Amino acid sequence: MKRNERGMTLLGFVIVLAVVGFFAYVAMRLFPMYQEYYSVRSAMKGLAAEPGIGTQDPARIQDLFFRRLYINYSENVKKEHVKLRRVDNGWEMQVQYEVRRPLVGNLDVVGKFDSTQMLTRAGDIN
Question: What's the predicted TM-score (pTM) here?
Answer without folding.
Answer: 0.79
